[in-house]
Amino acid sequence: MGIFSSRKKKKEQRAARIDDAFNRVYTQIEGIDNWDDPKKLEHYILDSCEQIIASTKAMERQKMEYRLVTRYLNDIKTIENLPRDKAKDLRTTAARICELEQNLINARAIQRNISDEQFEVISDDERDMPEIINRFSADEIYQAKLKRNLAYLEGEKSRWEIEREDLQAQVKLFKNMAIAIMTAFMTFLILLFTLYNASNMDISIWVIIVLFICAVSGFFVFIRQNAIARDNKVAIVHLNQAISMLNVERMKYVNVTNSVEYSKDRYSVNNAAELQYVWEQYQDKVRDQRRYIENNEDLEFYSNKLERLLSNMGLADDKIWLTQVNALIDRQEMADCRHRLVVRRKKIRDRLDDHRRIVQEERDEIDRLMTNHEHYLPEIQEIIKSVDKLCGTSSSKKIDA
Length: 401
Description:
about 400 residues, mainly alpha, Helix Hairpins, 2 domains
């Protein structure tokens, strides 16, 4: 490390000196008014030197990339030439990682039909949920039963109210009939006594008949009024019973309805069947989360194992294979990876050749100009020598990769 550092510092110092020489020469060239002067060639030479330096720097970057790609290809060769037991362990570990990663992707894609609010509420009541669902279902059944009872009792209440109203109408009717009978009886008696006084006619038989009719009618009215009164009492008793039972059932219905509505509001459901479904979704989601955590832990374990296996192989870059796990399993994908690297290295080599050609052409052109022209600023020779030393160029030597 010390040797490379010192070389790097020397190279940087040399480049700084070249930059200073460039600045001095450019300052002097800027004062030239006549561009027919030979010194304009010096400007061209300086531009060529800058081009050589820029191309050399680009070549250094390309060489670094070339060495990096070569290391990757050597790593592929090392992996493919592993002993059978190590290769099997590596593929098994990589396959397990791929499987776990796919499991995690599938787990993230699962959508359970339960809201976050429902999940939190059910999480608080998780232990009691089976009992809560059973109670909710029983309350719904009881509520439906009470609703039927209320409907029946409402009908009974209405029936006895109608019965009572009908009996009251009959009481009024027979009362009017009794009055009418008494009025008719008195009218007939007055009429008969009037006829008797006027003609001394025998009216005893007619009196008996009128009395008989009046007695029969009065007896019928009396019997019917007694029956109506008895039926009215029965109707009142049944009506009161219906009202009393209706009030009790209403209280029960209100209580169970409050319980049902509380469950609906708390768990954001419409009925016990829906709560049962949400509870099953909750259980599935909990199992999904548990599996996700387990897969994550297993993935971390196998990733650490793969990292250890790769680090023991002496690879130039073992970290990159942690993101190329499929290539460790699939031979075709590994072959495709190698092919891409080979193509990439060939492109880099071609670019290097292009840069070499450009640098050498620029350097040869400088030599040609230096040969044809002898009048230059003193710094020009210094710059050309420094560029040759920095970039490894010369008039007769080609640049090596």
